[in-house]
């Protein structure tokens, strides 16, 4: 039995020495001068020497070999201590108490290792207790240092050193068990000692993985994905066999007469299942993805990729529209030259919205079709090359003929936002061979979500703009209808008076002028409604001349309008002449409607000293309540007149605010109303247009009436 153990120990420590030697040589070749990398090289060399000495002890035990192995183990532990302390205290950070504790532990180990070592074989003397106790304390300190290192790391930095901490912690836990057992029973367990070398050799891949993940160690080291994949596969297979063996032992132990037969059947079933798993391409693919995801750096620099993707989407402000920007952003991720974007319209159909370096396509998909249904439900990126080789991978999906026949089509990427399929992108084949793996698919799925949100917001914005256009058109239509109502009222008044004054030449002339004014005004309203914009430009408007024109237009209505304007003239404001006359005309007409024929209506212009001209419309009519002025007057569709639309005052308030002026109402029921408009004054610009406006005939003036 002892001979078998010695053979196991020789091979175990020998393999550990070879593994550490190869690791040390590889680190030495990859080292570029960083302190952590240099200390790691020293630790690997010390571990190599320790494992080699332990193999010699197992091959040919001797007092001096055992003493040398003990001293080399002290050197190995000290080297790993220094390595952890260097990581725990980067350059520029203060050193704490842990280096002192480590020095004390190493010195106690060294002192006990220099004592006679023959007690390790079978004695229970004090020297053996001291040696085992010092190594036991060293294992405890190693665990404490690893815990301090892991806890001191920022959360975002733990990914790199997690394998190292796991490996070192596992190694020192094994040491803790080994020396605790020896300290309690005053004798080292030969079985545990024989596999100690293999245990420490298993830590090497984890240390190497952290070295590859930590460029700050200044080690140019990389691990082959294939090696790690096969090592992981072997480790998983070994663990599986151990579980099967344990289950078989349990069945044999409790199975009675059937125990051995059941054990053999279970072992055969386990081996058969292992063969199926190993031979399964899907299982190997899942294991490969697991290894690549969790043991290696990612293929992409996601920060740079995301910044580049966002910048590509923002290029919609330049030469490309948003749809083309989405195509470009997605195609740049997979080296594609371009493609087409299909977006959902209001009818639930998806048609080509944009294209980039691709021909136009008239194909239309319905949202309840097989393609859109599959994309909405699965959110898979469809690789058309993969689909042609094995359609069964996509669960019986039937692609439309136009997509399969589309020249250069390569990937179909769904665009889904808020649980709703917004559209999809068809990318063309890449410029060079490009492998589509799990990481590319994850990146495309994440990017499509961002792109879909951009497109969904674009569609919402377009719908909002369209709704606002309709709202603006409807509002303008309401104002036009309001003006038409006033024109109809003017014609009705003319027809009413025609029965009494039809033979009066002056009335006939006034009637012709009124009809001409109404005709011109209706033409202007139709033009404004068709063009959906104001038909005159802002220019200096003389408030005095405006008051005269309004009095002239309203001369047939009672009571007669009294005006008071500056004698010297020059009360100019910058406004749209036609619109200003219309809104002031609303106020004058309201005053006339609210005032009996024996009342008074006045229109006054004054001020100018404070940079504002004041236009006052006053009447002695029925007046308004303060509650109505405060809560309803300036709101649309609010009126006290029978048959009124309630838009005149609203339009007046809106336009006065646009000009930078103010409007105020002073009214009392039964005593009348006074409206004060304060408008910013401006210098009159002498121009042919102004002169023509000032000298306009009554007919032309009336054509501008509101």
Give the C-alpha Rg.
47 Å
Structural class: alpha+beta
Taken as a percent bin, the fraction of beta residues is 5-15%
Distance between the termini: 118 Å
Mean pLDDT: 76
Helix content: 55-70%
Rough shape?
elongated
Largest beta sheet: what is the strand line-up?
3-2-1-6-5-4
Number of discrete helical segments? 26
Number of strands: 13
Largest sheet: 6 strands, antiparallel
Low-confidence runs of at least 5 consecutive residues = 117-124, 686-706
Helices and strands in order, then pairings?
Layout: H1 2-30, H2 35-59, H3 63-88, H4 98-113, H5 119-122, H6 126-152, H7 158-185, H8 190-194, H9 196-201, H10 204-213, H11 225-254, H12 259-279, H13 281-295, H14 302-314, H15 322-333, E1 339-344, E2 349-356, E3 364-366, H16 370-378, E4 382-383, H17 384-389, H18 401-405, E5 409-417, E6 420-428, H19 438-501, H20 505-531, E7 538-542, H21 543-553, E8 561-564, E9 572-576, H22 577-594, E10 601-607, E11 612-619, H23 626-631, H24 648-658, E12 662-668, E13 672-680, H25 688-694, H26 698-703
Parallel strand pairs: 8-10
Antiparallel strand pairs: 1-2, 1-6, 2-3, 4-5, 5-6, 7-9, 10-11, 11-13, 12-13
């Amino acid at each position: 039995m002892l001979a078998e153990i010695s053979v196991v120990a020789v091979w175990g420590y020998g393999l550990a020495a070879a593994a550490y030697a190869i690791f040390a040589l590889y680190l030495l070749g990859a080292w570029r001068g960083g302190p952590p990398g240099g200390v790691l090289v020293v630790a690997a060399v010390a571990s190599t020497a320790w494992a080699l000495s332990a193999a010699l002890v197992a091959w040919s035990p001797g007092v001096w070999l055992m003493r040398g192995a003990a001293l080399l183990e002290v050197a190995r532990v000290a080297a790993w201590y220094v390595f952890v302390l260097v990581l725990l205290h980067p350059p520029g950070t203060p050193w704490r108490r842990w280096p002192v504790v480590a020095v004390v532990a190493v010195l106690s180990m060294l002192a006990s290792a220099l004592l006679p070592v023959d007690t390790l074989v079978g004695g229970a003397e004090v020297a053996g207790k001291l040696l085992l106790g010092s190594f036991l304390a060293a294992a405890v300190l190693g665990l404490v240092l690893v815990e301090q290192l892991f806890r001191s790391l920022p959360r975002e930095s733990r990914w790199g050193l997690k394998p190292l901490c796991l490996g070192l912690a596992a190694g020192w836990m094994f040491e803790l068990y080994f020396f605790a057992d020896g300290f309690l029973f005053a004798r080292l367990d030969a079985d545990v000692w024989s596999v100690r070398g293999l245990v420490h050799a298993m830590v090497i891949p984890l240390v190497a993985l952290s070295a590859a993940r930590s460029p700050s160690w200044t080690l140019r080291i990389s691990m082959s994905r294939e090696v790690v994949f096969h090592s992981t596969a072997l480790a998983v297979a070994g663990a599986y066999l151990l579980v099967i063996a344990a289950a078989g032992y349990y069945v044999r132990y409790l199975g009675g007469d059937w125990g051995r037969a059941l054990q053999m059947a279970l072992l055969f079933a386990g081996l058969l299942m292992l063969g199926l798993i190993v031979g399964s391409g899907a299982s190997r693919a899942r294991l490969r993805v697991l290894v690549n995801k969790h043991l290696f750096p990612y293929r992409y620099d996601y920060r740079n990729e995301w910044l580049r993707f966002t910048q590509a989407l923002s290029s919609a402000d330049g030469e490309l529209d948003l749809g083309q920007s989405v195509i470009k952003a997605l195609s740049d991720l997979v080296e594609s030259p371009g493609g087409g974007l299909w977006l959902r319209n209001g009818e639930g159909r998806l048609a080509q919205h944009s294209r980039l370096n691709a021909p136009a396509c008239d194909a239309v998909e319905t949202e309840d079709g097989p393609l859109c249904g599959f994309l909405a439900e699965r959110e898979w990126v469809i690789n058309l090359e993969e689909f042609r080789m094995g359609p069964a991978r996509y669960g019986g999906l039937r692609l439309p003929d136009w997509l399969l026949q589309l020249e250069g089509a390569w990937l179909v990427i769904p665009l889904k936002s808020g649980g709703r399929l917004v559209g999809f992108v068809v990318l063309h084949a890449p410029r060079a061979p490009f492998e589509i793996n799990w990481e590319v698919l994850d990146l495309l799925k994440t990017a499509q979500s961002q792109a879909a949100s951009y497109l969904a917001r674009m569609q919402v914005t377009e719908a909002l703009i369209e709704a606002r256009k309709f709202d603006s058109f409807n509002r303008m239509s309401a104002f036009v209808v309001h003006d038409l109502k006033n024109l109809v009222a003017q014609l009705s008044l003319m027809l009413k008076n025609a029965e009494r004054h039809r033979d009066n030449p002056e009335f006939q002339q006034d009637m012709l002028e009124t009809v001409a004014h109404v005709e011109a005004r209706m033409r202007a309203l139709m033009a404004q409604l068709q063009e959906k914009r104001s038909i005159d430009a802002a220019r200096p408007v003389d408030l005095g001349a405006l008051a005269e024109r309004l009095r002239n237009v309203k001369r047939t209505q009672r009571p007669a309008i009294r005006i008071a304007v500056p004698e010297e003239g020059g009360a100019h404001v910058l406004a749209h002449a036609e619109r200003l006359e219309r809104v002031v005309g609303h106020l004058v007409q309201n005053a006339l409607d609210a005032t009996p024929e024996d009342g008074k209506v006045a229109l006054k212009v004054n001020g100018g000293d404070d940079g504002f001209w004041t236009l006052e419309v006053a009447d002695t009519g029925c007046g308004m309540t303060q509650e109505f002025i405060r809560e309803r007057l300036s709101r649309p569709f609010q009126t006290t007149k029978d048959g009124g639309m309630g838009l005149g005052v609203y339009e007046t308030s809106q336009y006065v605010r646009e000009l930078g002026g103010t409007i105020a109402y002073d009214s009392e029921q039964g005593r009348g109303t006074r409206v004060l408009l304060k408008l910013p004054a401006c210098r009159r610009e002498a121009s042919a247009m102004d002169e023509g406006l000032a000298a306009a005939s009554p007919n032309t003036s009336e054509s501008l009436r509101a």
